[in-house]
Amino acid sequence: xxxxxxxxxxxxxxxxxxxxxxxxxxxxxxxxxxxxxxxxxxxxxxxxxxxxxxxxxxxxxxxxxxxxxxxxxxxxxxxxxxxxxxxxxxxxxxxxxxxxxxxxxxxxxxxxxxxxxxxxxxxxxxxxxxxxxxxxxxxxxxxxxxxxxxxxxxxxxxxxxxxxxxxxxxxxxxxxxxxxxxxxxxxxxxxxxxxxxxxxxxxxxxxxxxxxxxxxxxxxxxxxxxxxxxxxxxxxxxxxxxxxxxxxxxxxxxxxxxxxxxxxxxxxxxxxxxxxxxxxxxxxxxxxxxxxxxxxxxxxxxxxxxxxxxxxxxxxxxxxxxxxxxxxxxxxxxxxxxxxxxxxxxxxxxxxxxxxxxxxxxxxxxxxxxxxxxxxxxxxxxxxxxxxxxxxxxxxxxxxxxxxxxxxxxxxxxxxxx
Amino acid sequence: xxxxxxxxxxxxxxxxxxxxxxxxxxxxxxxxxxxxxxxxxxxxxxxxxxxxxxxxxxxxxxxxxxxxxxxxxxxxxxxxxxxxxxxxxxxxxxxxxxxxxxxxxxxxxxxxxxxxxxxxxxxxxxxxxxxxxxxxxxxxxxxxxxxxxxxxxxxxxxxxxxxxxxxxxxxxxxxxxxxxxxxxxxxxxxxxxxxxxxxxxxxxxxxxxxxxxxxxxxxxxxxxxxxxxxxxxxxxxxxxxxxxxxxxxxxxxxxxxxxxxxxxxxxxxxxxxxxxxxxxxxxxxxxxxxxxxxxxxxxxxxxxxxxxxxxxxxxxxxxxxxxxxxxxxxxxxxxxxxxxxxxxxxxxxxxxxxxxxxxxxxxxxxxxxxxxxxxxxxxxxxxxxxxxxxxxxxxxxxxxxxxxxxxxxxxxxxxxxx
Lengths: 418, 418
What we know:
Radius of gyration of chain A: 26 Å
Keywords (chains A, B): FAD, Fatty acid metabolism, Flavoprotein, Lipid metabolism, Membrane, Oxidoreductase, Transmembrane, Transmembrane helix
Protein name (chains A, B): Peroxisomal acyl-coenzyme A oxidase 3
CATH superfamily of chain A: Butyryl-CoA Dehydrogenase, subunit A, domain 3
Largest sheet of chain A: 2 strands, antiparallel
Number of strands of chain A: 2
Distance between the termini of chain A: 57 Å
Largest interface: A-B, 47 and 46 residues
Structural class of chain A: mainly alpha
Strand order of the largest sheet of chain A: 1-2
GO molecular function (chains A, B): FAD binding; fatty acid binding; pristanoyl-CoA oxidase activity
Cofactor (chains A, B): FAD
InterPro entries (chains A, B): ACOX_C_alpha1, Acyl-CoA_oxidase, Acyl-CoA_oxidase_C, AcylCo_DH-like_C
Order of helices and strands of chain A: EEHHHHHHHHHHHHHHHHHH
Oligomer: homodimer
Strand content of chain A: under 5%
Number of helices of chain A: 18
């Protein structure tokens, strides 16, 4: 549509670089350190993605009051609903703490850089942050999509109601998986960075991770030799089990990805072709595991600093999110020999169910803490007064025209009859 | 809202049963065989669910032309898109053949019964059909939901366009997972029937499955002793591997469910409580596997009778659907010892990727065969002329008001400026 459509050169956005009248690309910076500063502007991509992540998390938090209040989830007979919903509530809490911590780290670096202060390993930090955001945005936006769907289903027929506001939330959130970086493309970028770190670790070189998100790769051989040794659910419901299992998982998936990628290069494929062919299963699972690990790592540090009275419920939510997420990686845990036989999957799933049951008396308070006000929530199903059916009735009888005939009624009722 | 609202007794729908003036329940049939006929009316539930299944499948078929034509999926570099889409296309084909075959079986029984002819094991057949529909409706409606989402994502930003008609398809389809029987409730009903058959098989009693969907349970011990022995992908891409793996899977999941359920009963729980507590993971996976097996079993029989020229592509689609679905049961295949070590999951996933690649030259024809006409499809992204960008441009410039100012433009532009 812009074929042969002329845009004058003076319309260029040329603060950091320009094109001369004879078509040469030039940078307007002579000082290399300034170019680095300008490169930091790429972080605007990070900012956009971060905003999406934040919005996505807020939407996620907005979902929960409906189904959680809709069902009386404190009852045992609601086990299926507990299982389908509580993991997502835990995810919303862990993600919120993660985003707050991570935003602080990121904004500190941006502030220092803008003030002209020296930031150690700035370009390495920028790369690491880029990798972190590139896999966190897919994790948060896809999880929120799934959560919105589970919320609607858990509210049954009432979930369709316009005044439940679940459909609109879902539709409005949906584009986040595509814009500000399509999720699949972003995952590749995180995968590239991870593979660079792993290759360096294998070669005994230094890792470029000033934020320490993959420092454990230094000991990748030791980590890879870990195995599942628990024989009761109490041993699984620990931060230590969750974090070390994730480290094993990331090492295993990196090794799989690395081996496949190298094998394809050895076959004569280009790097681009090799990445494409090794992406499905390997890169997706790898960057998903890494992003979950990031959320767990940052939120764990933050929870440890919270006031004592908050810690018990936050640890429960942390543990539930960790085990509920590991459940989805069971194939790799078995495939790589970390798990063997019937017990590991059984124990892991029992631990998830136990945590759901442990949380049932606290979940309504958790959801109330996450939720915005009734006005923002804008849903007849989750008003803070808890009067579900009365509010439904009020919405119904209060809606203009509820008791009127449709204007086209004469078209469907032969006039002779009435 | 109907509190103290009186409805006269004469408004009762009382063809098969009634309530007398003094409140007694009476059946209006004296002949027991007639009561059975009336009970067949319960099949109206089956009919409703079947209709949902059929509509769901049609919607599923309607989705595909967009993303498949949107991408040039015949190219190797599109491996992620092939992987995310082709499995669902294969599912749509297998489901369509399954529904056609199954509807024929069902309608034959209904016809005979309505004509007053004798149907062997009528009440057993009714129970089996009820179980089949109760798990097939969740399978088809949930799969179509996932497919609609994948289609939208695969079309990127263009997928949001109103004129792409993907959002409306998704929203209109969404209620199917709840109405005519909530999917979770229906799965329990199928689970009940399956568990009854398994208990009978364990006790050496006769199975009540005139449609032969679980006849293999007679040999549940032999089936349970099967293990994964393939050492190349060719051995996996066979109908024999798929069907026997599903039989193992169903036996394993039944044994897990049975053991858990019995253990809970032994602890003193009621049947209702025990079912609730054994549902998550076990009943869901069990009825999902059974429904996939049904789709495969019925479609395989039908494909074997198709004309020779159609068979190669139909077998490829059948095999892709079978392996792609088994991929999602890998945890249980490992947990139960059917698979051990790194190779099985690796081979299975390689086989899926190979089948995607094998199908790339045929997939557009397959999608065209599934799809309704352009008018019904009603999407700018998938017109049969294949002129994607020209059609997008036409839709954009042809839309009333595209080149007009918004009526509220004065509110955002200070009048002094223009």
